Amino acid sequence: MSARLSSPSRRIAAIGAVVALVVALVATGIAIGQHAGGSGKREPATGSAGNSAPSADERQKVYAQLEKASVRRGGEDPLAVGKADAPVVLVEYADYQCSYCGKFTRDSQPELIKKYVDAGTLRIEFRNFPIFGKDSERAARASWAAGQQGRFWQFHDEVYAKTRKGDALAEDKLVDMARTSGVKDLDKFRDDLKGSAAEAAVKKDQEEGYSIGVQSTPTFLVNGRPIAGAQPMSAFDEAISQAEAAKKSAK
To answer: Residue 87 above 60 pLDDT?
Structure first.
């Protein structure tokens, strides 16, 4: 379950399923960070052995590329939670009007934090990936603005506490949510929301997502392994376990 981009020009690389992405990248040798040309549509790709699935080694190479392209580990990143040197990093690309993103925030995020972040195993890095127009972009800038006062996660959870769309994400409504989230300086919040720094930060997240093939929300990368949509907790458990084991074996 995921919300998908409506603009054909932004359908740049399939990421709806892990195998589809791996096959496309391995077969065509696409470098991480390279956009597709034209409309972004690609011809169907096959694995390195005709129509066979990619090998485990091929998948791991692609995951390593995606991890390198997406993970930041900035120690002072207000849009991240967890130790900067945690062995596993989950990068989330999300839109504040995406109901599936809200479902993940309400259902899975608290359990991930309790089970893995608090234990030092996992770091979560959020990326603003607004795909539903101006209201989504405004909410994304607002979340960044809340982060400038150390209240990103509180604001993030407040926005996703229920499905909000359109006028529910108007500036005054966002200010109300910022107040509820404990943002102290609301004048600064308004200024930051409308400022060039917020716009640049959101654009950076978007361009990162586009460059690695994100085309729907929510999309997650667990040490580079893609998980698309609001998947059950078991999908995250499996990905985190495998990523942690891979890190240990690489030492």
So the answer is: yes
